[in-house]
C-alpha cells in the first residue's frame, strides 16, 4: 500500500517526466542498458539495433514497427521492455515465436494497456500461452481502443479462450461506438451554439444583411472545416484479426462470428483451420449482415462444394445494399480467398452467381483446387464477365487446359475490364491455349500480367518444345509490356 510520501514522490516523478526533454538514440540505448544491468540481463542485440534508429527529438510520432520475431524472451526480458515503451510508441509490434509464457504475456499486456504501445500486435506461434495469458490478451483488447490488428496464428486456443476473446472484441466495439456517438453529438452541439452566437450578433444589422447572414448560416459547412476534427476522432477499435491454424471450429467459431458481426472488423483470416461444410453455416450471419467485412481468408480448409455453395448463397443474398446512388463507393467484400478447399466444377456454378453481387470484389483466390478444371472455369465465366471491379484472379494448380484458357481469353477481351493479374501456375495449358492467350493480349489496350506460364506441365512434357517456347515467349512478352 502506498504511503503519502510515496504518492508525493510519484507525483513529482510524473511531473519531471512530463517536463523532461525527449531522448536521442544514445540516451534511449543507455536507458535500456542501465535497466538491463539493474535486472542482471544481457541487452538484446535485436533491441539495440532498432533503438539506434529512434530519435525522439525529431518527432514523438509512433514508429512504424518494433520487431522481435524469433527472439526468445523470458519474464525479465519483458519487464525490461517497459523502459522502451514508456518513451516510444509503435504502429506494429511483432512478437512472433518469442517463447512467451503466461507471466510474460500478463506483464506485457499491462504495459501495453498503460502506455498504448502499439496499434498492431503479433503474438503468432507462441504455444506456451495458456488460459491466464489469453485472459490478459482479452483484457488488452477490451481496454485498448487504439489496437487495430491482432495476429494469433498457430497458437493454442481452447473454447474458453475463444469465448473470452470474442466477448472482448464485442465489448471493445461497443465502447468505441459509444465514444464515436458522443464525439459527434458534442460536435453538433458546438456547431449549433456557434450558429446561435452568429445569429444573435447579427441582430443589429438591417433586414437585407440579416437575411444574407441567415442564408449563409443555413448553408452546409464545407469539407475543409472538418479537417481540425479529424485528429480528435476516437479510435474505431479492432479492424483485423488473424486466427489461422488454431483449430477453430464448431460452436467456438459460431460465438466468434456472432461477436465479429457486431464489431468493426473488416479483415478476418481463418485459413488452415480444417473448416468443413458444416462450419460454413456459421459464416452466414457475417456474410449476410457484416457490411464492414472487406477481406475474408478461408484458404487451406475443407469446405468442399457444399461449403462453397453455402458461402456463395450468403454472398448473393446480403441484407445490406452493396451500392446505391448516394454512396461514392460500394460496400461489401473486396477480397475472398477459397484456395485449397477441395472445390470442383459444381461449386463454380453458385460462385459464378454470387461474385457479381459483390460490387466491391477486386481479388478472388481459387488456387490449389485441381478438380476445378476447364468446366469449372466455364461455369465461372459469366460471373467473371459481370464482376467489373475484379483485378486479381488466382487459378494456380486448378487443372486448367486449353479449353479453360480460351474461356479466360474471352473474359479478358470483354470491355470494360480491370482484370490485370492472373496466376496460371501448374496448369496444363498447351499450344492452343497459349495461342488463344497470345491473340487475346494483343487485342486489349491495357497491361495484363499472366503469372506462372513457364511452370506448365504440358509444356515440359510436350514433344514440340520449340514451338511451345515460341508461343510462350510471345505470351510472356505481351503480358509484361
Automatic annotation (TrEMBL):
Keyword Transmembrane helix annotated: no
GO terms of biological process kind: nucleocytoplasmic transport
InterPro entries recorded: Leu-rich_rpt, LRR_dom_sf, RanGap
SUPFAM superfamilies associated with the record: RNI-like
Alphabetical list of Gene3D superfamilies matching this protein: Ribonuclease Inhibitor (3.80.10.10)
Record's keyword annotation contains DNA damage: no
SMART domains the UniProt entry points to: LRR_RI
Cellular compartments per GO CC: cytosol; nucleus; perinuclear region of cytoplasm
Entry's transmembrane regions: none
Domain of life: Eukaryota
GO MF, one annotated term: small GTPase binding
UniProt keywords, alphabetically: GTPase activation, Leucine-rich repeat, Repeat
Protein name from the UniProt record: Protein phosphatase 1 regulatory subunit 37
Amino acid at each position: 500500500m502506498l504511503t503519502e510520501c510515496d504518492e508525493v514522490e510519484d507525483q513529482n516523478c510524473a511531473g519531471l517526466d512530463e517536463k523532461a526533454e525527449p531522448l536521442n538514440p544514445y540516451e534511449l540505448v543507455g536507458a535500456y542498458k542501465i535497466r538491463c544491468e539493474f535486472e542482471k540481463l544481457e541487452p538484446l542485440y535485436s533491441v539495440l539495433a532498432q533503438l539506434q534508429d529512434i530519435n525522439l527529438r525529431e518527432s514523438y510520432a509512433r514508429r512504424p514497427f518494433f520487431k522481435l520475431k524469433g527472439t526468445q524472451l523470458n519474464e525479465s526480458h519483458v519487464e525490461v521492455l517497459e523502459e522502451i515503451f514508456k518513451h516510444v510508441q509503435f504502429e506494429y509490434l511483432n512478437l512472433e515465436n518469442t517463447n512467451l509464457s503466461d507471466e510474460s504475456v500478463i506483464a506485457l499486456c499491462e504495459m501495453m494497456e498503460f502506455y498504448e504501445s502499439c496499434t498492431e500486435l503479433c503474438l503468432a506461434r507462441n504455444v506456451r500461452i495458456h488460459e491466464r495469458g489469453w485472459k490478459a490478451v482479452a483484457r488488452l483488447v477490451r481496454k485498448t481502443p487504439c489496437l487495430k490488428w491482432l495476429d494469433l496464428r498457430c497458437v493454442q486456443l481452447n473454447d474458453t479462450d475463444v469465448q473470452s476473446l470474442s466477448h472482448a472484441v464485442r465489448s471493445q466495439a461497443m465502447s468505441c461506438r459509444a465514444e464515436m456517438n458522443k464525439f459527434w453529438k458534442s460536435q453538433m452541439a458546438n456547431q449549433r451554439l456557434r450558429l446561435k452566437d452568429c445569429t444573435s450578433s447579427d441582430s443589429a444589422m438591417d433586414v437585407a444583411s440579416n437575411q444574407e447572414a441567415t442564408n449563409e448560416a443555413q448553408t452546409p459547412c464545407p469539407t475543409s472545416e472538418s479537417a481540425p476534427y479529424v485528429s480528435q476522432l476516437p479510435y474505431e477499435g479492432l479492424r483485423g484479426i488473424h486466427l489461422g491454424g488454431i483449430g477453430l471450429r464448431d460452436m467456438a467459431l459460431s460465438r466468434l462470428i456472432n461477436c465479429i458481426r457486431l464489431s468493426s472488423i473488416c479483415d478476418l483470416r481463418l485459413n488452415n483451420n480444417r473448416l468443413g461444410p458444416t462450419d460454413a453455416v456459421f459464416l452466414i450471419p457475417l456474410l449476410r449482415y457484416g457490411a464492414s467485412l472487406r477481406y475474408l481468408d478461408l484458404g487451406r480448409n475443407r469446405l468442399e462444394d457444399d461449403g462453397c455453395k453455402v458461402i456463395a448463397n450468403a454472398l448473393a443474398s446480403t441484407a445490406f445494399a452493396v451500392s446505391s446512388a448516394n454512396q461514392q463507393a460500394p460496400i461489401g467484400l473486396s477480397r475472398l480467398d477459397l484456395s485449397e478447399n477441395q472445390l470442383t466444377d459444381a461449386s463454380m456454378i453458385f460462385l459464378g452467381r454470387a461474385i457479381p453481387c459483390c460490387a466491391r470484389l477486386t481479388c478472388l483466390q481459387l488456387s490449389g483446387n485441381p478438380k476445378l478444371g476447364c468446366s469449372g472455369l466455364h461455369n465461372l465465366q459469366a460471373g467473371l464477365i459481370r464482376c467489373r471491379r475484379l483485378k486479381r484472379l488466382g487459378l494456380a494448380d486448378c487443372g486448367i487446359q486449353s479449353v479453360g484458357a480460351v474461356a479466360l481469353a474471352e473474359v479478358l477481351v470483354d470491355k470494360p475490364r480491370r482484370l490485370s493479374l492472373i496466376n496460371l501456375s501448374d496448369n496444363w495449358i498447351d499450344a492452343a491455349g497459349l495461342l488463344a492467350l497470345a491473340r487475346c493480349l494483343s487485342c486489349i489496350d491495357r497491361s495484363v500480367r499472366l503469372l506462372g506460364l513457364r511452370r506448365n506441365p504440358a509444356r515440359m512434357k510436350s514433344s514440340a518444345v520449340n514451338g511451345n517456347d515460341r508461343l510462350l515467349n510471345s505470351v510472356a512478352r505481351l503480358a509484361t509490356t
